[in-house]
């Protein structure tokens, strides 16, 4: 396995070593020892699969608010996606910046998303399935999001007119979310 740094500190692309023959291929996509040596989490109490019917489906940008933050391992098992992370960690050199990578069944890449980042993706093929390993249990009341088309971020999503859920249409933009966090912090200290 190869662990590749990304422009967002702590996030990594993991490339599986792939062994092919007449039957197909074998690839290890997770190894506790290798992850531990790379400084990544090794306990994943939750795993989820997401199937997307249509090309252009966009999910995100999602995260869980503190103290229920979660790290994720994201892998596209069938199809292709443009996967995006946004750094929401104050004090990070890439705070309020995004980065994206293509994940597909063919390239066998996995994206490690550290705690404190928003995550989303857009499908680049019909019938796309994504597999997640998640470092914390989902807490519905802590679920948050940032608007997918926030002009501050300017993410160049590859497909126009995305298929979106109602919830993903109405998330706040990054500036509104940030202002709300600052207000909540001030109220907490009063």
Automatic annotation (TrEMBL):
Signal as UniProt keyword: no
Family statement: Belongs to the dTDP-4-dehydrorhamnose 3,5-epimerase family.
SUPFAM superfamilies: RmlC-like cupins (SSF51182)
Function: Catalyzes the epimerization of the C3' and C5'positions of dTDP-6-deoxy-D-xylo-4-hexulose, forming dTDP-6-deoxy-L-lyxo-4-hexulose.
Description of how the protein assembles with itself and partners: Homodimer.
Protein name: dTDP-4-dehydrorhamnose 3,5-epimerase
Keywords tagged on the record: Isomerase
Lineage of the species this protein comes from: Bacteria, Pseudomonadati, Acidobacteriota, Holophagae, Holophagales
Reaction equations catalysed: dTDP-4-dehydro-6-deoxy-alpha-D-glucose = dTDP-4-dehydro-beta-L-rhamnose
Entries under CDD domains matching the protein: cupin_RmlC
Pathway: Carbohydrate biosynthesis; dTDP-L-rhamnose biosynthesis
Enzyme Commission number(s): 5.1.3.13
Broad EC category: isomerase
The species this protein was found in: Geothrix oryzae
Cited Pfam families: dTDP_sugar_isom
